[in-house]
């Protein structure tokens, strides 16, 4: 049995786990136990001392470059780095971010619940919702807030707004499960970068009008979502009106997308696949027993400068 230590600051990871899908693999979450590989989602929370060598440590990048710059010295602690955009690392894999689900957190709803969910459109509001915040740190944040505020003011019949700075919610599922449609607007436009904003919509069987990842069609069926461009406000409003006025039968494609989120794009599936790739290289890796230190992400002065430039002028340095 191969044991993988999974490190994340998210509290609800385990509900995404479907144990019967994994043979000879066990995921553990306590660093004090024995383990063979380390999978870190963004950062360890504190310094970790481990005998697991660099070659068996995987880092999963969860933030776009506009939000969080990753220095080479930080990435060098890991033998493999996985993320949506290319970074300077000798063994880098391109992948969508393996972010935890947020929908269903309060009720601790897991993969089995969402697999069996069959929503009734007749009981849902024929209107759009969005769960967001009024945070305006980056250009992407500001664009989204401006778009949502204008919609809320000019077309309140189309959209209900929830989230920090609006109507707070304890659990996204409480909102998404009550609406036919939602707006899913990412913080940035970056290939392969899509997040729980669209994933949570699929899990809730709420049809997303989506803005963000340009190649989102490479990941999900084209009829499971509606692509909008928030830079074209009038066209976006027309698309939203069309959704509400027409009878959409997206259930089959929507459930295909939901199954992809639960199974293929599940963070445990990704970790399992990456560890299996490393296991195939075991003869080259060898066995090590030297204790090594793994440090958390640090906001150094260089990181803060890069972050400020990205937030202020939308420039990656």
UniProtKB/TrEMBL annotation:
Gene Ontology cellular component list: membrane
Ranges where the Fucosyltransferase C-terminal domain occurs: 124-235
UniProt KW keywords: Glycosyltransferase, Transferase
InterPro entries reported in the protein's UniProt record: Glyco_tran_10_C, Glyco_trans_10, GT10-like_C_sf
Signal peptide: none
Gene3D superfamilies (UniProt xref): Glycosyl transferase family 10, C-terminal domain (3.40.50.11660)
GO MF term (any one): alpha-(1->3)-fucosyltransferase activity
Top-level taxon in the UniProt lineage: Bacteria
Keyword Membrane: no
UniProt family annotation: Belongs to the glycosyltransferase 10 family.
UniProt name for this protein: Fucosyltransferase C-terminal domain-containing protein
Species annotation: Segatella oris F0302
């Amino acid at each position: 049995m191969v044991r993988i230590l999974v490190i994340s600051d998210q509290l609800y990871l385990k509900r995404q786990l479907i144990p019967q899908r994994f043979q000879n693999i066990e995921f553990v979450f306590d660093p004090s136990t024995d383990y063979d590989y380390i999978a870190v989602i963004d950062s360890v929370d504190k310094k970790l001392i481990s005998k697991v060598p660099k070659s068996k440590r995987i880092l999963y990048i969860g933030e776009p470059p506009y939000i969080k710059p990753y220095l080479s010295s930080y990435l060098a602690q890991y033998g493999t780095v996985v993320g949506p955009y290319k970074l300077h690392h000798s063994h880098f894999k391109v992948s969508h971010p393996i972010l935890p689900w947020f929908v269903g957190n309060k009720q601790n709803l897991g993969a089995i619940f969402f697999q069996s969910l069959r929503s009734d459109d007749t009981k849902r509001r024929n209107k759009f919702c969005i769960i967001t915040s009024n945070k305006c740190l980056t250009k992407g944040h500001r664009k989204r807030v401006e778009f949502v505020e204008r919609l809320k003011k000019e077309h309140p019949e189309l959209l209900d707004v929830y989230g920090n700075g609006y109507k707070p919610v304890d659990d996204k599922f409480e909102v998404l499960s009550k609406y036919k449609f939602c707006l899913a607007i990412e913080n940035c436009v970056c290939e392969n970068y899509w997040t729980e904003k669209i994933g949570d919509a699929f899990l809730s069987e709420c049809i997303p009008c989506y803005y963000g990842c340009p190649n989102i069609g490479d990941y999900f069926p084209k009829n499971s979502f509606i692509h909008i461009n928030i830079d074209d406000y009038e066209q976006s409003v027309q698309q939203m009106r069309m959704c509400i006025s027409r009878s959409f039968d997206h259930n089959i494609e929507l459930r295909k997308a939901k199954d992809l989120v639960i199974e293929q794009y599940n963070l445990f599936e990704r970790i399992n696949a990456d560890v299996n790739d490393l296991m195939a290289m075991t003869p080259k890796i060898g066995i090590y027993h030297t204790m090594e230190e793994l440090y958390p992400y640090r906001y150094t002065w260089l990181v803060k400068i890069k972050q400020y430039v990205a937030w202020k002028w939308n420039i990656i340095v």
